[in-house]
Structure of Transposase:
Amino acid sequence: MTTELGYQAHTSSAADRENDGVPLPLEPCLDARDAAPLPAWLDQLAASGLSALASLANTIREDQQAVVQGITTPYNLGVNEGRITDLKLQKRIMAGRAGVPLLRHRVVLMAPLRRHYP
């Protein structure tokens, strides 16, 4: 498709991306919790000709078993990571100003603000 300025508009169909050599996204696999296409996706990354994507593929392959577990299991540590982020934020804000008791008090007061479970 060509725009009125004469530029070639980018189409985002899977066939076009496959022909361009750009790896297809892994989102459908993540949504379906299916890790079967992961090795083929990693091969596409490695063959893309981009060193950053090839490096990503090699890094994922080093710990592929953990990546497969992360894709296929319904559990995550999102709540814990949020609490840790809050704690680190408070720690940075209060650096050198107060001791552990005040830090603990602020974290305890902040905890109810994060309770938004589905």
